[in-house]
UniProtKB/TrEMBL annotation:
Modified residue annotations for N6-(pyridoxal phosphate)lysine: 217
InterPro entries on file: Aminotransferase_I/II_large, HisP_aminotrans, PyrdxlP-dep_Trfase, PyrdxlP-dep_Trfase_major, PyrdxlP-dep_Trfase_small
Pathway the protein acts in: Amino-acid biosynthesis; L-histidine biosynthesis; L-histidine from 5-phospho-alpha-D-ribose 1-diphosphate: step 7/9
Broad class of enzyme this protein falls into: transferase
Catalytic activity: L-histidinol phosphate + 2-oxoglutarate = 3-(imidazol-4-yl)-2-oxopropyl phosphate + L-glutamate
Encoding gene, per UniProt annotation: hisC
Subunit structure: Homodimer.
GO biological process terms on file: L-histidine biosynthetic process
Cofactor(s) named in the record: pyridoxal 5'-phosphate
GO molecular function, one term: pyridoxal phosphate binding
Lineage per the UniProt record: Bacteria, Pseudomonadati, Pseudomonadota, Betaproteobacteria, Burkholderiales
Organism of provenance: Trinickia fusca
Protein family: Belongs to the class-II pyridoxal-phosphate-dependent aminotransferase family. Histidinol-phosphate aminotransferase subfamily.
Domain Aminotransferase class I/classII large residues, every copy: 27-349
This protein's name: Histidinol-phosphate aminotransferase
């Protein structure tokens, strides 16, 4: 009798699946979702658009109209192409698989986005984590030393970083890009709507840089659409790893529709940036709380006892992310997503209780 234990890779057997908390009945401030829904007339129009989609047909593998719209709306420079993924998570995994030569390494600052490390593990790349400084800024000298020592195939720089919210210094980024002559540098701009800074216009300036974006944090996490911007020479290779019909017809149609109405999402992002500033100020005023500067739609907050604070928030039906065990630099840290005004108020009230 064959069992999974006989067949499945031992490193997979010893893994746990990606944890997603059940948020039923909670104010959901754990996953950087946009809290706002679409205005009713727009939702109805979207429904009509989706009703016209041919569900019996396979999706276009490279939907020209959607890609054109992305190029135009997101300011993709001439000479750069766009590769679509089923969320940027799929792109991260495609990049790892395509680069997984024997002995190849993937380097990223830590703490960082967990999918970089997971993609390396699944594709058998060695992961090299370079700790940030205690204030969560980039330790550029340590990065340069690690790049020289490990000569990684892939370097991820999240701009801004998750879970810290840090927007790395542009000059530091540039030093790393120049030093990483034998690496591909992937700049992950998942939080661009909240950072309002981007490397996309410079994507064609360096032959070792690609820029990754997603519509998830902009308010479309449910449709799963990420994209990679870069020189065709890179994207053509990653495209060979892409599952042929990875972006489904409903996602393609919904994305195209929403990009025609991107002003609605942009206005929601502006509202969240405003709320982020207010929330940061209010949380920072609580006794014992330290708020790290954030360019995302979330705040990293250090408190005296993160486990206790997290539990108090849960009792108040507010779900946040306790990141305190993820990395030593995150000791006693919670990550709070910026939500709608009433959600932020409920979280703040619970946090006040926790810290008094
Ligand atoms: C949320 C997030 C993503 C988005 O992944 P999707 O699969 O597109 O939802 C990518 N990078 C970072 C750093 C993130 O925090």
């Amino acid at each position: 009798m064959t069992t999974p234990q006989d067949i499945i890779r031992s490193d997979i057997l010893s893994m746990k699946g990606y944890p997603v908390a059940d948020a039923t009945g909670f104010v959901k401030l754990d996953a950087m979702e946009n809290p706002f829904t679409l205005p009713e007339p727009l939702a109805a129009q979207l429904g009509e658009r989706l009703a016209g989609v041919a569900l019996n047909r396979y999706p276009a593998p490279r939907p020209a109209q959607l890609i054109e719209r992305i190029k135009q709306v997101m300011g993709v420079p001439a000479g750069c192409d766009v590769l679509l993924g089923n969320g940027s998570d799929e792109i991260i995994s495609m990049v790892a698989v395509a680069c997984a030569k024997p002995g190849a390494k993937l380097l990223a600052p830590t703490p960082g986005f967990v999918m970089y490390q997971l993609s390396a593990k699944l594709a058998h790349l060695e992961f090299v984590g370079v700790p940030l400084r205690a204030d969560m800024t980039l330790d550029t000298d340590a990065m340069l030393a690690a790049i020289a020592e490990h000569r990684p195939s892939i370097i991820y720089l999240a701009y801004p970083n998750n879970p810290t919210g840090t927007l790395y210094d542009d000059a530091d980024m540039e030093r790393i890009i120049h030093a990483a002559r034998s690496s591909l540098v992937v700049i992950d701009e998942a939080y661009q709507p909240f950072a309002q800074k981007s490397w996309i216009a410079r994507a064609s300036e360096f032959d070792n840089v690609v820029v990754m974006r997603t519509v998830s944090k902009l308010g479309l996490a449910g449709i799963r659409l990420g994209y990679l911007v870069g020189a065709p020479a890179w994207l053509e290779e990653f495209d060979k790893v892409r599952p042929p019909y990875n972006v489904n017809v409903l996602t393609q149609a919904a994305a195209e529709f929403m990009l025609e109405h991107v002003d609605v999402l942009d206005a929601q992002a502006a509202q969240l940036r405003e709320a982020r500033a207010q929330l940061a100020q209010a949380v920072a005023a609580l006794p014992g709380a330290w708020v790290f500067p954030s360019a995302g739609n979330f705040l990293l907050v250090r408190v005296p006892d993160a486990d206790a604070a997290f539990e108090t928030l849960l009792s108040a039906r507010v779900l946040t992310k306790n990141v305190s065990k993820m990395h030593p630099l995150l000791a006693n840290c919670l990550r709070l997503t910026v939500g709608a005004p009433d959600e932020n108020a409920q979280m703040l009230a619970a946090l006040k209780l926790a810290l008094k």
